[in-house]
Each structure stands twice: as C-alpha cells, then as structure tokens.
Amino acid sequence: MKLGFRDGVLYDEKRSNWDAAGPRPISWSLWYPAADDAQSDVPERSWFQRAAVARDAPVRPEARPYPLVLLSHGTGGSAAGLEWLARRLVDRRFVALGVSHHGNTGIEPYRAEGFACLWERAPDLSYLLDHRDAWLSDLSGDIDTNSVFAAGFSAGAYSVMLLLGAVAQFSQFEPSRMKPGGARGPREFPDLADHIPALLRTSDVFRDSWSRMSNSYRDDRIKAALICAPGRSVLGFSEESLKAVDAPAEECSSWLHARLRRSALKIFGGGLGHYVFVPEGTALGLAFAAELFTDPPGIERAVIHEEIANLSAALFQVSGISAMA
C-alpha cells in the first residue's frame, strides 16, 4: 500500500513556549494510505530506516473512514521515531498522527523544562483532536476522529496513560525525590534534576507548568492504547487514578498491569533492550549511535516491529482495552 505523508505545526495559544516568547508549538506528522497512483519520494538521509512516502498525496479511497491512532515518542525523540509503527498501521488500514513534543524532542534544542514537565505532552495530542480541521484539510471525510486510539513509547507511554486518566502525584526528578547516587535524569538529559530548583525560582512558564502536574488530562475520545516500554516516570501516577483507567521497563509494565482493571501485558523474550521500540538504523545511525540500533544476537528488530503492529491492530479492532508491551 502506498504511504501518504503530511506534516505541519500548530500553536496552542493557551500555553506558552518555554521561552515565554509565544504560544506552544505542536509539530505533527501524519501517515495515511495514499492513492494507488501517488508518486513516492526517496526518504531523506536519516539515522532511521524509513519507507518512501507520497507527500501530500490524495488518500486511498475506502468504503469507511480510516481509524486514527495518535503516536507519542520517547523522551528526546520525535514523531519520526515511530514511523516504523505508523507505516505498519497504515498497511493495516489505520491512519497515524504523531507529535514531536516541544522541548523534549530532537527536532529542536533540548530543554530541561520539556524533559521535566512530561505532563505537557498529553495536551499536545488532545489539541490536535480539538483542532482537527487544521490538519485534516481535504481528508476530513476519510479519517474517523470520533473513536481514536493511541500508542506511546517510553515517555510517550506516560503521555498516553495521562490521556487514559492516570494522574501524576510527583515527578521522579523533583528535588524531594532524589536519592544520593541515584540517576539525576534520563540518558538524554543526565543532569535534569539539577536544573529544576533554578527553574522554579526564575521561570514563570516553568512554575505554571509545575503547578499543573497533578491535573487530569483524561481524553474520553481515546478508546484504547498501546503502552510500549514505559519508563520509571509512570511510578509517579496516583494508584487511585489508575483504578479508573480501562486498561527497569519490565517492572514498570508489570506495575501498571497490576493496577489497571482491563489490560493485557506482553513481555518479549530474548533479552530485548529498551530501544527495540525505535526504528532500525541506517549506516549513518549505526556510526553515530550504535547503542540505539544494536539488538542481542538472534533478534531481528523488524520481526519484533511486525509483531507489535499486529498486536496494535488487534487491540484497536476490539477496542476498549489497554495493552502494554
């Protein structure tokens, strides 16, 4: 099936960017089934293996609207990091819409604020649903935005859990939670905790966001979600809030699974690493970040990705159940 692609930027006027210089940017990427006669372009040079896309192509006509899946990337990543899942969902007759979350994405300079305030990611996804006319354009009759699904990897799993109704009680890197000798930030921002006290003193935007940590970001339009390799940030969720959700990495998945009334848990064997949920690497990617693209002997990342896509499609087709991988 031909892979259609569009992208753009929206601006949330109700939230500031981290510089307090304008509204919060929401960069989006849309993958969808393109018409059979659409012309595909060669993928741009990247660390990731990606499929050719037909940019801005007409949609492939179907008898019913395509179901929509929202995608939320891992910390420091981008929507492109979930292209492997997006194109496989398109092959299974879904449309995928990903966001590159401001301050916490590799498409712009990293910001401590974006890494610390992960709860700001969930409203990015809801904003796209609220303002769907801005990105749907001529596809409005071809995509079902009433019954929506979601998938998130690592910090994206945290984002998706917020949409399902989880509520954060604390941030794992706030000063009161720090233990001597413990990690002070994620791999991509290892000294994150050291920035928080100064930001609380000097940044109005950061303080405003920090005060919204325990807000509810539930979005009842999300009918089911795939939670991939959740990080330790999910341990900050209120256990009481998890009762209302219909729904190291393994221990975090298991912790969530034990607290969700309706969920299914899939643990892959073979000693898979956290980064099996990012795309396969190109020669360029392997040269600069081999650790992101190297799996244990005998593991084929593309095979794992196919299995995850099958799990996703089956989950979304039955709907109403949350799942973790």
Question: Can you characterise this structure?
Answer:
The structure is a single chain. The chain is an alpha/beta fold and 325 residues long. The chain has a single domain (3-324), classed as 3-Layer(aba) Sandwich (Rossmann fold), CATH 3.40.50.1820. The protein has 11 helices and 9 strands. It has a 9-stranded mixed β-sheet, sandwiched between helices. Helix 1 (83-91) links the parallel strand 4 and strand 5. Helix 1 (83-91) crosses helix 11, helix 3 (121-130) packs across helix 5 and helix 6 crosses helix 7 (204-211). The two termini are 26 Å apart. The mean pLDDT is 87.
Can you give keywords for this protein?
nine-stranded mixed beta sheet, 325 residues, 31% helix, 11 helices, alpha/beta, Rossmann fold
What overall geometry do the principal axes of the alpha carbons give?
Answer: globular
- Please tally the β strands and state the result: 9
Summarize the amount of helix as a percent range: 25-40%
The overall average pLDDT, rounded, is 87
Rg (C-alpha, Å): 19 Å
Count of discrete structural domains? 1
- CATH topology grouping: Rossmann fold
Main β-sheet, in a few words?
Answer: 9 strands, mixed
What is the top-level CATH class? Alpha Beta
The strand line-up of the biggest sheet is 3-1-2-5-4-6-7-9-8
Count, helices:
11
N-to-C CA distance: 26 Å
What structural class should be given to the helix and strand makeup? alpha/beta
CATH architecture field:
3-Layer(aba) Sandwich
- Low-pLDDT segments: none
